[in-house]
């Protein structure tokens, strides 16, 4: 086993283990420590520590010799675990998206686990202004002196680490803000159902960002292409560009291109 370069490496490996444990529990609602250790090929003592941590987060309940899924409606892992899911693909997508940002642009960067990867690639940009609703995005922007940054105000949505609600939209309206480009994250994208999201509370601000922007760029990893989530943000024709990765189903990408959307494969 390789040595960890720093504590961030260790935390990421731990998050991946936690995600794998939760996915196993999602299959049958319960699992023994022995089963988890064998399937993940790690020690039972490590599994016990992971189960203790996940129980602290309220995601499962420890039982004798194992654990049971606490939330039967657990459809998606917590934000910290989602950050590690398809991380490499998200970084490639973000880098390709950042190439679309020109010096002097005013851009809206949505909150999410993919959009945050855009920020490091803005280091060489000049006179760029970023408006965001993502707490994680704003934190990373805070360390970049070359970028003028604004975060909208409103209700903190803990599950997505972002701002949502009418106050956020009111701020954009109050100053009649306008953007050259909006980079929008979503739970799913398809030619038939458009851009959709599982969290309804976040949809109005995403719609507003699309409305005030000259161009809209959708950012999703390939696993989300050709799928549908609970509520529609906008039809597929609202997108000028979709940035995704090579795992996206080609049949669906062909349909999206036919709708007039430029597809960039990162």
How would you characterize the overall build of this protein?
The protein has 266 residues and is of the alpha/beta class. It folds into 2 domains: 7-75, Winged helix-like DNA-binding domain superfamily/Winged helix DNA-binding domain (Arc Repressor Mutant, subunit A, Orthogonal Bundle); 86-265, Rossmann fold, CATH 3.40.50. Helices cover 35% and strands 24% of the residues. It contains 9 helices and 15 strands. It has helices at residues 7-28, 33-40, 44-56, 79-82, 87-98, 135-141, 166-174, 203-211, 250-258; strands spanning 30-32, 60-63, 66-69, 106-109, 128-132, 147-151, 155-157, 162-164, 179-185, 188-190, 194-197, 213-219, 231-234, 241-244, 262-265. The protein has a 7-stranded parallel β-sheet, sandwiched between helices. Strands 1-3-2 form a 3-stranded antiparallel β-sheet. A hairpin with a 4-residue loop joins β7 and β8 (162-164). α2 (33-40) crosses α3. 38% of the residues are buried. The model is unreliable at 1-5 (pLDDT under 50).
């Amino acid at each position: 086993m390789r040595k960890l370069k720093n504590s961030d490496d260790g935390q990421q490996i731990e998050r991946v283990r936690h995600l794998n444990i939760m996915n196993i529990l999602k299959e049958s609602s319960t699992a023994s420590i022995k089963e988890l250790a064998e399937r993940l090929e790690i020690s039972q003592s490590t599994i016990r520590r992971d189960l203790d941590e996940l129980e602290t987060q309220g995601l499962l309940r420890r039982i004798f010799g194992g654990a049971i899924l606490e939330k039967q409606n657990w459809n998606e892992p917590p934000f910290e675990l989602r950050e590690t899911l398809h991380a490499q693909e998200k970084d490639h997508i973000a880098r390709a998206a950042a190439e679309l940002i020109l010096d002097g642009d005013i851009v809206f960067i949505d909150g999410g686990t993919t959009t945050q990867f855009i920020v490091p690639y803005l280091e060489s940009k000049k006179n760029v202004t970023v408006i965001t609703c993502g707490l994680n995005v704003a934190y990373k922007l805070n360390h970049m002196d070359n970028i003028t940054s604004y975060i909208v105000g409103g209700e903190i949505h803990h599950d997505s680490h972002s701002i949502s609600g009418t106050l956020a939209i009111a701020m954009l309206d109050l100053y009649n803000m306008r953007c050259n480009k909006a980079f929008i994250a979503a739970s799913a994208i398809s030619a038939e159902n458009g851009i959709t999201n599982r969290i309804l509370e976040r949809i109005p601000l995403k719609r507003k960002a699309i409305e005030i922007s000259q161009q809209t760029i959708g950012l999703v990893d390939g696993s989300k292409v050709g799928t549908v989530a609970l509520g529609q943000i906008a039809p597929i024709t609202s997108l000028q560009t979709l940035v995704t990765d090579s795992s996206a189903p080609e049949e669906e990408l062909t349909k999206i291109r036919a709708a007039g959307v430029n597809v960039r494969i990162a």
